[in-house]
Write a structure and sequence with these properties.
The complex is a heterodimer. Helix content of chain A is 0%, strand content 57%. Chain A is built from no helices and eleven strands. In chain A, strands 2, 4, 5, 9, 10 and 11 form a six-stranded mixed beta sheet that branches. Chain A has a five-stranded antiparallel beta sheet with strand order 1-3-8-7-6, with no helix packed on it. Chain B is mainly beta. Chain B is globular. Chain B starts with a strand and ends with a strand. The chains are: A mainly beta, B mainly beta. At the A-B interface, β4, β5 and β9 of A face β5, β9 and β10 of B.
Amino acid sequence: KNQVEQSPQSLIILEGKNCTLQCNYTVSPFSNLRWYKQDTGRGPVSLTIMTFSENTKSNGRYTATLDADTKQSSLHITASQLSDSASYICVVSANRGSTLGRLYFGRGTQLTVWP
Amino acid sequence: DTAVSQTPKYLVTQMGNDKSIKCEQNLGHDTMYWYKQDSKKFLKIMFSYNNKELIINETVPNRFSPKSPDKAHLNLHINSLELGDSAVYFCASSQFIGPYEQYFGPGTRLTVT
């Protein structure tokens, strides 16, 4: 069964600190993995997208890693800011047959950054 | 602005009513989607259309009927609304069907009373 699990469910950190969010998946056949940021009341916005051959990708203070062998990914946020408070969603795409184009969503990690 | 837009942003209605949510994308994309996000923030795909043709139809009640008049529009019509339909509905689009980047609209918060 194609699933995406994220941890922790929620996280509170102080402004300026770093944090790491985790994502494990069982989606097959794997095509790519994305991290989305969803601000309250808004639609998800893509942060990074990684294919099978990529094991790290950065977007400013966001760095995503991918281990396709263990089917794990992490999103590291450096020097957090208040505006980082949001839900971070791990999304895995399958690439063949009836699953073509389908995205499998994790339930997200709700990050709160306190001043 | 190039974007995915949805109307209305908020929709409050009573059980049993019929309502529609409209979605438009001006990105020139071939593929459009409808997602439902429940109170626990879990996003789940409902439908996907590619060039006006239905590609994905999850186990959604047949009270939900998507309509794509052209590839820039994918509207969602819901008949006989139920309390459990209360959620945020997101429209999205991607350039083609497959593992392409999806761009999401701002969402429509539907509340059924």
